[in-house]
Amino acid sequence: MTNTQGVGLRGEQAACATTLVAGVGNLFLGDDGFGSEVVRALSARPLPEHVKVADFGTRAWDLLLEVARGYERVILVDAHPAGLAPGSVRVFEASLPHDVEVSGAPLQRSMHELRPHDVLSWLQAEGAPLPRLQVVGCEPESFGEPELGRVGLSSAVSAAVPRAVRLVCELLNAESPHA
Question: Is the domain defined by 19-174 classed in CATH 3.40.50.300?
Answer without folding.
Answer: no
